[in-house]
Amino acid sequence: MYGDEEKSRSIIQSALFVALLAVSGWIAIPLGPVPFTLQSLFVLLAGAVMGRRGAIPVAIYLTLGVMNLPVFHNGLAGIGVLLGPSGGFLLGFVPAAYCVGIGYEQGKTWTKITGLCVGMILIYGCGLAWLMISTGMELWGALLVGVIPFLIGDAIKIVAAYAIADKLS
To answer: Which conformational region is residue 84 in: left (phi greater than 0), alpha (psi within -120 to 50 degrees), or beta?
Structure first.
């Protein structure tokens, strides 16, 4: 009667996830060229809560950063961040949120867990590929710098995203 509730919900959720992504980028632990942040947790949650539309706030977040708003880790901004060593991880956020969303739209526990895991693998895959290209590192070196130090923390983020999304639904 007063409008489309689904659109309103999507707009509010998108604004919330853009804000959460921006704030979580300020909480960074430097681990070499790729910092440890909570951003991937909110990428996974965006897909889990919003379905495949969870890619929208992630894309908005990246667009704001490219437009020189200081939303990337430690308040960085600009296209240079995406062209730097961590740029592939950031770009991997969009397909990750989309795949998590597809998994959650299926509604089965195993598709939700698979979606979360595939989402994290997409972040790693995009990030690893770009880390190798942007720095000239070999595969093993890029794994040592851009993946291995984050595995335990990201496994915890997957569990946390599943538990939080379960409580929200």
So the answer is: beta
Question: What is d(CA 90, CA 70) in angstroms, rounded to the nearest whole number?
Answer: 14
Per residue in 107-120, pLDDT (tens digit) is 999 999 999 999 99
pTM of the model: 0.93
With 0-12 / 13-18 / 19 or more C-beta atoms within 10 angstroms meaning exposed / middle / buried, residue 164 is middle
> What is the helix (H) or strand (E) element at residue 36, kind and residue range?
strand 36-37
Q: How confident is the model at residue 34 (pLDDT cuts 50, 70, 90)?
A: confident
What does the DSSP assignment read for 108-140? -HHHHHHHHHHHHHHHHHHHHHHHHHHH---HH
What percent of the chain has pLDDT above 90?
Answer: 85
Do residues 150 and 36 touch, judged by C-beta distance below 8 A? yes
Residue 34 zone, left/alpha/beta (φ > 0; ψ -120 to 50; rest):
beta
Q: What domains lie within the chain, and their CATH numbers?
A: 5-168 (1.10.1760.20)
Report the alpha-carbon distance of residue 160 to residue 41 in Å, rounded. Answer: 8
Task: Specify the higher pLDDT residue, 33 or 4.
Answer: 4
